[in-house]
Amino acid sequence: MQLQVKGKNMPVTDALFEYAERKLQRLTKILPPWDEPPIVELELSVERNPKIAKPQTAEITVRTRGGVLRVRESAEDMYVAIDAAAHKLERQAARYRERRRRHRAPHEHAPEPVEMIVPELQHEAEAEGPRVVKTKQFAVKPMSSEEAALHMDMLHHDFYVFRSAETGDVNVVYRRHDGDVGLIVPELA
């Protein structure tokens, strides 16, 4: 496991790093064994607003060859926030491992998503209505709609774009207002 710890509005002490490393070490036993160890990014932040009841936040992102897991927990103490996030991540990783075991994808070696920020438009005054301020590029790997719904849940997103393993077309699964999952299958006009 490759652990990267960042601090926002706070220094990352050796004690915090060692504590987080010890708590997240169990992930290596839960996640499927791969040739490359997973990259674990931990961002620790402190909100300076006194009205916030739980100002200490631990956000963990795990990038594996098979997908991305993300959790965020807040507490009054940073150690408690790390504990809660690590516990939640362990449950999520176990669920991910089980679902992955049941739904083996034919193409597991998809490249990692790449995120790019589009620079601000020069002529803001000319732009009317919504503007594109962020662009994401990522590999669209073949999978079933059930596996795409799993990835959407793991990332805590409202939608997920994927390539259908059956047809090869680009599809979208999305979270409906009633909590169910919808599937968009575009047709060429």
Outline the secondary-structure elements.
Elements: E1 2-8, H1 14-24, H2 27-30, E2 39-46, E3 56-63, E4 68-75, H3 78-102, E5 114-116, E6 135-137, E7 142-143, H4 145-155, E8 159-164, E9 170-175, E10 181-184
Helix pairs in contact: 1-3
Describe the overall structure.
α1 (14-24) packs parallel to α3 (78-102). The strands form three sheets. Strands 1-2-3-4 form a four-stranded mixed sheet. A four-stranded mixed sheet has the order 7-8-9-10, covered by helices on one side. It has a two-stranded antiparallel ribbon with strand order 5-6. It has two domains: 2-102, Double Stranded RNA Binding Domain (2-Layer Sandwich), CATH 3.30.160.100; 114-184, Sigma 54 modulation/S30EA ribosomal protein, C-terminal domain (SHC Adaptor Protein). It has 189 residues and is of the alpha+beta class. α4 (145-155) links the parallel β7 (142-143) and β8 (159-164). It is built from four helices and ten strands.
Summarize the model shown:
The chain is built from 4 helices and 10 strands, in the order βααβββαβββαβββ. The chain has helices at about 15-25, 25-30, 80-100, 145-155; strands at about 1-10, 40-45, 55-65, 70-75, 115, 135, 140-145, 160-165, 170-175, 180-185. The strands form 3 sheets. It has a 4-stranded mixed sheet with strand order 1-2-3-4. A 4-stranded mixed sheet has the order 7-8-9-10, covered by helices on one side.
